[in-house]
Structure of ATP-grasp domain-containing protein:
Amino acid sequence: MKRFNSILIANRGEIACRVIRTAKELGYRAIAVYSDADAAAPHVQLADEAVGIGPGPVGESYLLAERIIEAAIASGAEAIHPGYGFLSENAAFAAAVEAAGLVFIGPSADAIEVMGNKAESKRRMIAAGVPCVPGYQGRDQSDQSLLIEAAKIRLPLMVKAAAGGGGRGMRLVHDQAELATAIKLARAEAESAFGSGELILEKAIIQPRHVEIQVFADSFGNTVHLGERDCSVQRRHQKVIEEAPCPIMTTELREQMGQSAIDAARSVNYRGAGTVEFLLDNSGGFYFLEMNTRLQVEHPVTELVTGLDLVALQIAVAQGEPLGLEQADIRLEGHAIEVRLYTEDPSQDFLPASGAVELWQPASAVGLRIDSGICSGQSISPFYDPMVAKVIGYGPTREVARLRLIAGLKETVLFGTPNNARFIVQCLEKQRFIDGLVTTGFIAEEFSEADLADPLPEFADAAVAAVLELRLEHNQLFQRALGVSHNLRDWTSASCLVSRKKYQFDELSYDLAISPEGSDSYRVTGMVAATDTGESPTVVVTLSQLQDTNAQLLVDGKAITATYRSPKKGQLYCSIEGRSAFFKDLIILDGLVDEAVGGGRVISPMHGLLLDVLVVPGDLVVKGQVLAVLEAMKMHYEITAEIDGTVSEVSAVTGNQVATDDLLIEISEPDNDETKHEAA
């Protein structure tokens, strides 16, 4: 095989950073690629060289194989590492890389092609004797044939994109009446995400575990497995929490699943890192799901329990070196749990979010690893997947790993965009997770709408925010003043200065009076109003130390650490023990609040592309009716009416890009007279 000294990483975000770090540690020259939206991204700064490849949308940059190869040739790269996502499982891309005289750090194009198609891979696994879920993977793709085959399988069943992964182009069907729509939606999403509308049908295994086996193979016929990962905590078929080893794994079951994974890899002459995914039922039966012909998002947990660097192994195998490992050499030690940090809003049905990162401050502690691809001041683009970091806890036992991970998540701060950190902590603290008894239905079964609602800030947190905001204002004033002693802070000739702050969160408001009480101490008294009730609590807040983004304080004598960021006067992000909130001082902002939305004003929940607008002015609509379909961050979202009424205006245009909070449609409610007339 051709030797190489430089590697172009055909990806972005945290995986590009992760590959670049290992490549540079091994002495390779690392070259990044970037879209216009990523020009200032961390992976660009980390690389030895970076090459622009086009506009922000993936179809105009990261998914253009010819642009990637041109960038490699122009920069003098001799090999390409695809990371995951984008072109990592594109057989034509792998072949084109090799045809250009470059080394593809991954399996052969033939292996990618076979395993990249769920229908073909399943046919191949059946032939290789690997256990498979009953279903239909035939070549007749007409809707009528799929409906006929579905009747043979019986409900419930899964409709899946043959060419895809990550939960896209996938629908679970419980009701025969929903089947035709599920096929239509899955096919449309598959065509949009993968360029192929081919589908397969599978019997739904209810409440299984999702357990995958990491395999590695070289060009000399050596294939081993590196143990398993349990990826059962999922939402909409996308993994949220992964761990190694699986909490209920036995030595016998690991050997059986491991051997099946090795058989699967050998059946396609596999080379490099790959993952064979299985569904594991409650009786110990397991079924082939798919093979991912690339490095997985969750590979760090395997690295932590095996002590191996999987990227370094990928590079060595691509250099033509033998794996240097036998199955007996693989030892699993300790436990690792990984969570995916997404810029999404759990309280709004996990809608992806984009915007500026006001502060990114990852935790740093023993037994904690954080792989990220963001930095403070960066903008989260609407063009890409909303995962921005992975936080991994490791320890000698599962419980130690879990507790370290929870502590790390509470210490990690991401200000500026909604994120799922609190939701992940909730998952980790559920008794069912603690007991290791989760299945793929865990999130749907354990979380109610109330669980996912944003918690309102506590009075003490509001008091801390008020003191921090006041001190920051004072510091700015002192910087502009000449010859004024700090001893005069909070003082007037009449009496000590009393300041006022007012914060509003839905129907909860804090109207606070902040009075100096000795050096660096303040008594905060407030009126707390929530609907018709009110109370007037008081706390004493002492500011012990104030740094750029962190403060040490005492709240009624209890020591706390607060992380904060003030983007402008009257605004403060503040996080205390994992509780984060955005405080806007209505006194400074002259009482202005955000314009109310909802009801008859239908706005875009995020940046995205309008795939379809289903109403026109004059249409009668009912609450819950789908009005438009939006594509954002690789997923399709249905925008529905919040009220009954008549469409009065449609600003949305099919095919247009829209931004968060753009007005799409207006609905007029029926007046009372009209309603009464209809009733009569």
